[in-house]
Amino acid sequence: MKEYMYKSTKISIIKGNITKIKIDAIVNAANNSLLGGGGVDGAIHRAGGPDILKECKTIGGCPTGEARITGAGKLDAKYVIHTVGPIYRGGNNHEESLLYNAYNSSLTLGGENNIKTIAFPAISTGAYSYPIDEAADIAIKAILDFIDKNNSLEEIMLVLFSQGDYDLYERKLNRI
Ligand code: AR6
């Protein structure tokens, strides 16, 4: 775990399982249906129990780059913010702006719901194949841009599932 301060917001990185984090909101890397899947999405629904899916069914899906909020069932978080990152198809299909929007929409929705602390997985870098190096640059840019315009969030945590992803984020954040 490592912490950085950017203006008045803490940015922290941690290697681990996002379903175990005690925080106001965790972000789910969902798909357009919001009806569950594998990866972090599957882990969140498994650990959170059926209430999250029940609520998701009432939402009616989510376009790529947008975000929707539900309760967090049995998780230690208060909310789950479900966002949909792009499927990486070579990089010339608006992937960069869609991934940026997924982070920005999640942060904006968090701010609107009075959330002070939020944890993200590395959206789109698993089943959706976004190269982690580029995805990390976009995630960090979206986070810094958000903080430049808002001071509502106290902590933004990045939860990395592998040591390699953690080390990459650490190298990049050491430069800001
Ligand atoms: N905690 C933190 N990170 C995790 C966890 C976890 N418990 N489990 C996996 N990761 P992915 P995507 C990491 O595939 O690429 C689903 O089926 C994982 O190692 O979960 O956005 C959805 O329903 C990777 O670094 O999400 C969609 O259909 C990162 O989370 C699709 O996958 C994202 O990998 C979305 O694909």
Automatic annotation (TrEMBL):
Signal peptide: none annotated. Transmembrane segments: none annotated. Pfam families: Macro. Residues 1-176 form the Macro domain. PANTHER family: GANGLIOSIDE INDUCED DIFFERENTIATION ASSOCIATED PROTEIN 2-RELATED (PTHR11106), MACRO DOMAIN-CONTAINING PROTEIN (PTHR11106:SF27). This is O-acetyl-ADP-ribose deacetylase. It comes from Anaeromicrobium sediminis.
